[in-house]
Amino acid sequence: MRVFVTGASGHIGAAVVAELVSAKHHVVGLARSDASAEKVRAAGGEPLRADLDDLDALVAAAKTADGVIHLGYKHDLAFGGTPDGFVKAAEGDVRVVKTIGEALAGSNKPFVNTGGTAQLALFGGITRTGTEEDVVAGGPRVDGENAVIALGQRGVRSSVIRLPPTVHSSLDHHGFIPMFVGFARKNGFSAYIGDGTNVWPAVHTLDAARLYRLAVEAAPAGSRLHGVADDGVPWRAIAEAIGKGLGLPAKSVSAEEAPKYVGGMAHFAQISNPTSSARTRALLKWEPAHAGLLADLAERHYFA
Questions:
Q1: According to a count of CB atoms within 10 Å of the terminal CB, is the N or C end of the chain lower?
Q2: pTM score > 0.90 for this model?
Q3: Are strands 46-49 and 230-234 parallel, antiparallel or unpaired?
Q4: For 104-139, how does the pLDDT look when each residue is reduced to its tens digit (9 = 90+)?
Q5: What is the pLDDT of residue 227?
Q6: pLDDT at position 195
Q7: What pLDDT score was predicted for residue 285?
C-alpha cells in the first residue's frame, strides 16, 4: 500500500513510518520543515513538505494514497499556554479530518485517525474501565474522532485509535512522562496528588506503531480501537518510579497545592482512566510485546 501519514516525524509517527516500511508499504510522510523531512527519510519514508494548514496538499496526498493515517496535531498550540489554544488546536484538527474525509469519500480506502482514552474520563465522565464501545457525544478531540467514525457510512474504511495519556519508550522526549520527570527535578521530589490511587493506561511506542499498521491494513469501517497495554497504572506507582530514577523521594501533595508543583497538568494528573483493549486485541490479533510503563521507567532512559 501507499500510505499517507501526517505527524510522520513525531515520536509516534516516526515509529509508525518505520513499522509500515518494514511491512513493505510505501510511506509518504507530511513534514513541515527540513528537519522533519530528514526524520521521515531516516524512518524509510518519502517526505511531503507541507503542514496541516495546507489543505490542498492534504487532499492531493490523500487522493493519491491507498490509505491515510492521521497522527499530526498542533500540540504546541494546544499545550503552549495560548488562550483557548487547546480548543483552537482541536478545531483545527476537525478541519483537517473533514478535509481528508471528503477526499476519501466513496473510495473504500482506510483512514485511521488518532484519539485519546482520556477523553472518556474528561468529557464522558466515565470512571469505570472504558471500552471500545464507549462513545462520547462531543468535546475537544472527540469531535474529530466522531467525524472519522461517521465516514464509515460514506464509503471510507474509517477507524480511530484511542491512545492512552502515556505512550512511552526511549523515543518519548516530549510526552507526559518527560514533563513529570522535569517537574520532579525542579521540585526536588516526585509528586502525586492525594493518595495517588487514580490510574492511567499506557502503551509502548512500538506496540502502538504496530497497531496503526494493523488498523490501516484490516480495521473494519467505523472501528474504535484502544492502543492500550497497561489497563491502568496507579499514579503513586508512576511517581515512585520517577523518584527512584532520579534518586528523589515521592511525595503526596493536595489538589489545592498541585498547580504549584505540576503547573497546568494538575487537573489532568488527577483523572482516573482505566481502559480495556480486549476488543481491539481480538479484532486485529494485536498483542503488546514490549515493556510496560513501570518496567520501561526502570530501564532509566527517561533519566539520562
A1: C
A2: yes
A3: unpaired
A4: 999 999 999 999 999 999 999 999 999 999 999 998
A5: 98
A6: 97
A7: 98
Radius of gyration (C-alpha) of the chain in whole angstroms: 19
177-197 b/e with 16+ CB inside 10 Å = b? bebbbebbeeeebbbbbeebe
What does the alpha-carbon distance between residue 233 and residue 202 come to, in Å, rounded to a whole number? Answer: 8
Helix axes 205-218, 11-22, angle to 10 degrees: 60
Calculate ∠ Cα 82-83-87, nearest 5°. Answer: 95
Which residues of the chain fall short of a pLDDT of 50? none
**Reduced to 3 states, what is the DSSP secondary structure of residue 225?**
strand
CA-wise closest residue to 235 among 261, 200, 188: 200
- CA torsion, ordered 8, 13, 15, 21, to nearest 10 deg: -40
d(CA 300, CA 303): 5
Q: Where are the beta strands (DSSP E) in 82-131?
A: 110-116
The pLDDT value recorded for residue 81 is 72
263 φ/ψ sector (left φ>0, alpha ψ -120 to 50, else beta): left
CB 180 within 8 A of CB 190: yes
Q: Which residues contact 18 (CB under 8 A, 6 or more apart)?
A: 43, 44, 209
In the block, which residue shows the cell 482505566? 274
Distance (Å, whole) CA 160 – CA 145: 6
Cα–Cα distance for residue pair 238/246, rounded to 1 Å: 13
Element (H, E) at 185: helix 176-187
pLDDT, residue 79, reads 73
How many angstroms separate the CA atoms of 46 and 184, rounded?
A: 39
C-alpha separations of 215 from 108, 168, 265 in Å:
14, 20, 31
How far is it, in rounded angstroms, from Cα 149 to Cα 275? 20
Residue with cell 470512571: 127
Provide the pLDDT for residue 90.
86
Residues 6 and 142: their CA atoms lie apart, in Å, by 18
